[in-house]
Design brief:
CATH class of the largest domain in chain A: Alpha Beta
CATH topology of the domain at 351-592 in chain C: MetI-like fold
Number of strands of chain A: 15
Shape of chain A: globular
Structural class of chain C: alpha+beta
Number of helices of chain A: 19
Radius of gyration of chain A: 25 Å
CATH architecture of the domain at 351-592 in chain C: Orthogonal Bundle
Chains: A alpha/beta (about 400), B mainly alpha (about 300), C alpha+beta (about 600)
CATH topology of the largest domain in chain A: D-Maltodextrin-Binding Protein, domain 2
CATH architecture of the largest domain in chain A: 3-Layer(aba) Sandwich
Distance between the termini of chain A: 67 Å
Largest sheet of chain A: 7 strands, mixed
Number of strands of chain C: 18
Oligomer: heterotrimer
Helix content of chain C: 40-55%
Largest sheet of chain C: 9 strands, antiparallel
């Protein structure tokens, strides 16, 4: 027994040394390394931007699933944590409340160079939490070989689309995605086109969460139009993103409402197409999309990693600038938030999307918005599910009540 | 926990059948065949549908038929040549992980079963009850805690924490002892103690009895436990999706779910091909071990 | 034969193997200790050291022989099952959720930091880091001036009624037949479009120069200051050198910090707090800009309160992880921190209608789902087993093999496949049959779908075990009954059924427990959807376990780990109770009492 004990001690010592060389712990982050989380879509562009590092610091680009960037930031260990993340403006509320991202103080000039709406989109509780780098919105894509004259009103669009459907030339008159869970984002142009709004604004421009306009008077007066769409089958909630894509790209839908993330697929279609705003539904009310905004944010970990100044500079100075945003846009097919860079965009498709987004509304980044998506999406689903659908007036009135209740409950 | 041993079909010699009319046949056995056909159709049609889709160019979920008119391997090519979604890595990861975890699960379970079956010690009953109780708490309910623990492990042992297949395997082994120890113990209990005693008289140590006598005799139940562990690992989705991050480190369950999620029309063909490739080894293993499984199932294990 | 086998297993090689294994484990632990100390991972260190010592002691001595066979499994069980459970229980007593994920010191740091605000009239500066003659860091600061101009476009305005550009009748058309060189950007037809000019900027210039171009005209250049912690010191215009855009590039008497040296400035930047003209503090915001910030909150460490400098409100610790305004519970400072809040999560399930209503409907559905799953799979499996349990039936083996196939295919694959087949109007099932069943879409049909798929997945198992049980019923029993003149159905009811139920009851209960927590069967098929009206998290097919998962991890809805942990404990209690009752009645324990 004693002998084996001694042998065990000896083996242990040898193994300890061996482990030291084999399983070397992650070397403490080298000073001056900025860790940058982004998704696979944007990673090549970001890598190109920082191929030579940034102002004497190296930049490590880590690729994450888009949604995981936000989720993992809550649980990540300090060592592995990022210093800079690229994400969507509607994450700001949650990340700021968690203290995961820190307030930025954009200099006057940097701010002036950016689209005011996009800057506002990254503002939470009056504090700036990100630098917008791109804006995106959905638009109406029209199959020009099926639709010779672009409809000027939604009524015309409906007539043309339903005629094609009746003639058996298309399967889906208007391809706009919903699915079982609903999709208030893609339905938003129709929502605003009928006079709906989500939150009113206070005199100071902040969101007024007590003023919910899902079923306001204007919308209520127009709600029966939705019942008409449902009856004729113009809009059907069973169309998912997947089905909408397949239908339009195969020529089986004359109209498609989608965003620039589908540009690759749009470019690949074998027919001519147009990109425009959704035409107005009722006179005097524009059918505008949500303006989503992507931006870079600084995490609380940058300070602990000793790269606070470098990462701040990257976020507030470099990424806010025309050059970075123009390059990013060229590499990634998104419309820049920097107005000088936006003016230089030459890609006509991107420009067309930008034009279609004029007058659009930033996605509210306040946490109360979480209480809106579900009920509003469900109202659309319930009122446009074909046979057995709920009258729109009832569905949206219910949504209004549900949202009010949820917002009040905090 | 004595078990109904592997069932055997009792066959009484039946005299050679005479020719019978259709009505007679229907009355005696025909209706059985009719029901069996319907049931087989229910069981097999979805599988055939996938097999057919795998060999059809650009199938959609709606069209397609049970027999592809022009079979092609396009989907397999598309599936295997996609650097963003490295199916081959997922495949190798899953199979290796499943086999290695199964091996350790069997050893851990058998060790515990041996101790509880062959020794009488203080705390034995409590230990057994404890194992039963603990395994009722599904491991993945504590996902948040597991994630946070693995995050700490990553800080010390970079290779076995988050985003590591070894780390994932270690987590799975946390559930190795519970129900498996019970299952294997049930079988060990049916092996007569006299065998141990006589070996002991011959001078065999407890280790030699365990490795040399008990384990070989218990091969059927070990095979069942191993197979159930393989099936568990292949199907496990939640913990794997929380711990694994890099695309090349995913398991099939996580990878294919991401591959097909929300993209049914677009990826249906390659997905069908991938599903087919993934299912084949498991189905073969299952058929190969089927006679053990029937016995094992009746002892109270449920597919996990 | 056995003798020889045994002899081969003993002796030196086995001992060496054991020592090697222990050596590896010990080595790993010893090696990891310094890292764990520096990480302050005390709990982990304790667990690892105790586990290693226990392993050494038990495997190297002969005092506890049974323990040798249990120890490794027990260590895994402890680390990856028991500790997570206890951890989970402790989380259930906290407010761990979105907004309360960090520690209190972190929260205080964040509040202090984020409360420093640019006041209405505070100034931004162009900044040039330099060193003076003594090597001290001095920031050359020039106030930024921006020509006021209207925003380039209306995009992003908050006004929902802003008019949109009306649809242009002559929209460009894109696409068409693929062009050879630049398929993406070819433009076809439409109104006349001039080819876009080539990008005016240089995409490839290598250095990352900072983009702070200035529009200021030379005539009214703002003053330039040298900033240190002592304050701002205006420099004579003659000492300041500017480039053609008016940007300050150097100042006489100061040496620019070279660009590659910026990354070493971190700690010096941190120490800089230049008193500004508006009463705030000028802090660098990167390498080329600085902004004057005015604090809006002050922290009093002894009283543990924040005081607002604007309103005078004193925010105090509200005991549940936030600093809050005592007069307005809604007015809290973010972020908060993790705090023990007692049984709140447990009681909220019953008292908070926002949680209770969905919880109750999910709870009821979970039972319906589990019971129906077990019942239907059992009825179908048993019926098929009876039908095929006829000696000498032709094709019996083939039927059995085919019927078992759904069980042999990994379930996650089958579920994903079914999700495609059931895809509403456009899925295979509807298009082949010509039905228009909204399978995954309508709450009722989605529930039918998850049960149908579970039936497909589960009936082969019931078929297998029923076949096994049927074959283990002694045929003498059946024959004896038949001789008595009992008709075959009665034979069934009186003789076979009771025997079968005795044999299969534990399996049915185990199956119930399994389906009660059948996460994959729900989540991979419907994701818990479609949505219900009374909750934004729970869907119509959500069972408790998928609902819990969504509470904790659902993207975009906020994460409530504390509540999820509390519900997981309820699930444990429910499943545990059911299993305990079944075990108390099963043979397993009675036999082990020996």
């Amino acid at each position: 027994m004693r002998r084996s004990l001694r042998a065990a001690v000896a083996t242990s010592a040898v193994a300890a040394v061996a482990f030291g060389s084999l399983l070397a712990a992650p070397a403490a982050m080298a000073a001056g390394n900025i860790v940058f989380w982004t998704d696979a879509d944007r990673a090549p562009a970001v890598r190109t931007l920082f191929a030579n590092g940034y102002m004497g610091s190296t930049v490590t680009v880590v690729v994450k699933d888009f949604g995981k960037i936000r989720d993992d930031l809550a649980t990540v260990t300090p060592d592995a944590a990022p210093d800079v993340i690229m994400g969507a403006n509607d994450w700001v509320g949650e990340l700021a409340v968690n203290g995961s991202i820190v307030k930025l103080n954009l200099a006057t000039k940097a701010k002036a160079g950016l689209s005011a709406g996009a800057v506002q989109a990254f503002n939470y509780n009056g504090k700036q939490y990100g630098t917008p780098v791109a804006v995106e919105n959905i638009a109406l894509i029209t199959n020009a070989s099926l639709i010779k004259t672009q409809p000027k009103t939604f009524q015309e669009l409906s007539t043309q689309a339903l005629a094609l459907k009746k003639a058996g030339k298309v399967d889906i008159p208007l391809a706009v995605q919903q699915g079982a869970g609903g999709d208030a984002y893609h339905m938003y142009p129709m929502f605003t086109g009928l006079g709906g709004y989500i939150f009113g604004t206070t005199a100071k421009g902040a969101y007024d969460v007590k003023n919910i306009g899902v079923f306001n008077k204007v919308f209520a007066a127009n709600a029966s139009i939705i019942d008409g769409w449902n009856k004729t089958g113009l809009i059907n909630s069973k169309v998912t993103g997947d089905i909408a894509t397949a239908a339009f790209t195969s020529g089986k839908a004359p109209f498609w409402i989608t965003g620039p993330w589908n540009l690759d697929k749009i470019k690949a279609v074998g027919f001519k197409y147009r990109i425009s705003a959704v035409p107005p539904i009722v006179a005097g009310t524009a059918a505008v999309p949500f303006i989503g905004s992507q931006g870079v944010m600084l995490t609380k970990y940058a300070a602990a990693h000793g790269v606070e100044a470098a990462a701040t500079s990257l976020v507030t100075e470099f990424m806010a600038g025309e050059k970075a945003q123009y390059q990013l846009s060229a590499l990634n097919d998104r419309f820049p938030a920097n107005t000088a860079a936006a003016a230089r965009v030459s890609n006509p498709l991107l420009k067309a999307f930008g034009d279609a987004g004029k007058g659009g509304v930033p996605i509210p980044n306040i946490s109360q918005m979480n209480a809106v998506w579900g009920p509003l999406g469900a109202a659309w689903v319930n009122s446009t599910k074909g046979a057995g659908a709920m009258p729109a007036a009832k569905a949206f009135a219910q949504a209004q009540v549900a949202i009010k209740k949820a917002v009040a409950a905090g | 926990m004595t078990s109904p041993a592997v069932p055997t079909v009792r066959v009484a010699p039946i005299p050679k059948q005479r020719r019978q009319t259709f009505a007679q046949w229907l009355k005696s056995n025909g209706w059985r065949h009719a029901i069996a056909w319907v049931a087989v159709a229910f069981a097999v049609t979805p599988i055939l549908w996938v097999v057919s889709a795998a060999f059809t160019t650009n199938p959609t979920i709606s069209n397609g038929s049970l027999i592809p008119s022009q079979p092609t391997l396009d989907n397999f090519t598309r599936l295997l040549n996609n650097p963003d979604q490295p199916y081959v890595n997922w495949y190798v990861n899953t199979m290796l992980l499943a086999v290695i975890v199964a091996l350790f699960t069997v050893l851990i379970g058998a060790g515990a079963a041996y101790a509880f079956s062959r020794f009488r010690f203080k705390g034995r009953k409590v230990g057994l009850m404890f194992l039963l109780l603990v395994q009722m708490f599904p491991q993945f309910l504590a996902l948040v805690a597991i994630y946070l623990i693995m995050a700490q492990v990553s800080d010390v042992f970079s290779g076995i924490g988050l985003d590591s297949l070894i780390g994932l395997g270690l987590v799975y082994l946390g559930g190795a002892m519970g129900i498996n120890a019970w299952l294997i113990k049930g079988f060990f209990d049916t092996i007569p103690m006299e065998i141990d005693e006589s070996a002991k008289v011959d001078g065999a140590s407890h280790g030699q009895i365990f490795w040399g006598i008990i384990l070989p005799l218990a091969a059927p139940v070990l095979a069942v436990v191993g197979l159930l562990s393989v099936i568990f690992t292949i199907n496990e989705f939640v913990i794997a999706s929380a711990l694994l991050q890099s695309p090349q480190k995913l398991t099939l369950a996580v990878g294919l779910q991401q591959f097909i999620g929300e993209k049914y029309s677009e990826n249906w063909g390659p997905f069908a091909a991938g599903a087919l490739l993934a299912a084949i080894p498991v189905v073969l293993l299952f058929i190969f071990l089927q006679k053990f499984i029937v016995g094992g199932l009746t002892q109270g294990s449920v597919k996990g | 034969m056995i003798q020889r086998l045994i002899a081969r297993l003993g002796g030196t090689p086995a001992l060496l193997l054991k020592l090697l294994f222990l050596g590896l484990v010990n080595g790993m632990t010893v090696w990891a200790i310094p890292t764990m100390i520096s990480n302050e991972s005390w709990l982990m260190m304790a667990v690892l050291v105790i586990a290693t010592l226990a392993l050494d002691f038990i495997l190297l001595t002969s005092r506890y022989i049974p323990a040798k066979y249990v120890i490794i499994g027990a260590i895994f069980l402890t680390i990856f099952q028991l500790i997570p459970i206890f951890y989970n229980v402790s989380i259930a007593f906290t407010n761990y959720s979105t907004g309360n994920i960090g520690t209190k010191p972190d929260a205080i740091t964040a509040i202090v930091r984020d409360s420093a605000a640019e006041s209405e009239d505070s100034t931004s500066y162009d900044m040039l880091p330099t060193r003076n003659a003594t090597g001290e860091l001095v920031l050359i600061l020039t106030p930024q001036v921006v020509a006021v101009e209207a925003p380039a476009d209306g995009s992003g305005t908050l006004d929902p009624s802003a008019p949109s550009a009306s649809a242009d009748p002559g929209l460009e058309e894109f696409g068409g037949e693929p062009a050879a060189s630049e398929p993406a950007l070819e433009e076809f037809g439409g109104t006349e479009t001039t080819p876009s000019a080539a990008p005016s900027g240089d995409l490839t210039s290598g250095t990352n120069d900072l983009n702070v171009a200035t529009d200021a005209e030379a005539s009214d250049l703002p003053p330039t200051y040298a900033g240190t912690n002592e304050g701002l010191d205006e420099l004579p215009a003659s000492d300041v050198q500017r480039d053609e855009f008016g940007t300050v590039v150097s100042a006489t008497g100061f040496v620019n910090v070279p660009g590659e040296g910026f990354s070493n400035l971190e700690s010096e930047f941190n120490d800089l707090a230049i008193p500004g003209p508006q009463g705030g503090v000028i802090k660098p915001q990167g390498y080329a800009t600085a902004v004057e910030l005015v604090p809006t909150l002050t922290y009093d460490a002894t009283a543990d309160t924040f005081t607002s400098l604007d309103t005078g409100v004193v925010y105090s610790n509200n005991g549940s992880g936030n600093f809050a305004n005592p007069d307005d519970a809604e007015d809290v400072l973010v972020p908060g921190w993790r705090e023990y809040i007692g049984f709140t999560n447990f009681t909220n399930v019953f008292t908070d209608s926002q949680i209770r209503d969905p919880f109750i409907s999910v709870f009821i559905w979970t039972f319906i789902y589990a019971i129906l799953s077990v019942f239907l799979t059992f009825v179908l499996g048993l019926s098929l087993a009876i039908v095929l349990n006829k000696p000498r039936m032709r094709g019996q083996r083939v039927y059995r093999a085919l019927l078992v196939l759904p069980y042999a295919v990994p379930a996650f694959l089958s579920i994903l496949v079914w999700a495609g087949l059931l895809n509403d109007d456009f899925g295979a099932l509807n298009s082949v049959t010509g039905w228009h069943v909204p399978w995954l879409f309508d709450p009722f049909w989605a529930r039918v779908s998850v049960i149908l798929v579970n039936l497909w997945l589960g009936f082969p198992y019931m078929f297998l075990v029923s076949t096994g049980a049927l074959q283990s019923i002694p045929s003498e029993l059946q024959e004896a009954a038949r001789v008595d003149g009992a008709r075959s159905f009665q034979v069934w009811r009186r003789v076979n059924m009771p025997l079968l139920l005795v044999a299969l009851a534990p399996l049915l209960i185990a199956s119930f427990a399994f389906n009660f927590n059948n996460f994959n069967g729900i989540y991979l098929l419907t994701g818990g959807g479609p949505a219900m009206d009374n909750s934004e998290v729970a869907g119509a097919t959500d069972i408790l376990i998928s609902y819990t998962y969504k509470i904790a991890f659902s993207a975009g809805q906020g994460n409530d780990y504390g509540l999820a942990s509390a519900i997981s404990i309820y699930i444990f209690i429910i499943v545990g109770t059911i299993s305990a009752i079944s075990f108390a009645r099963s043979r397993a324990l009675r036999e082990d009492r020996a």
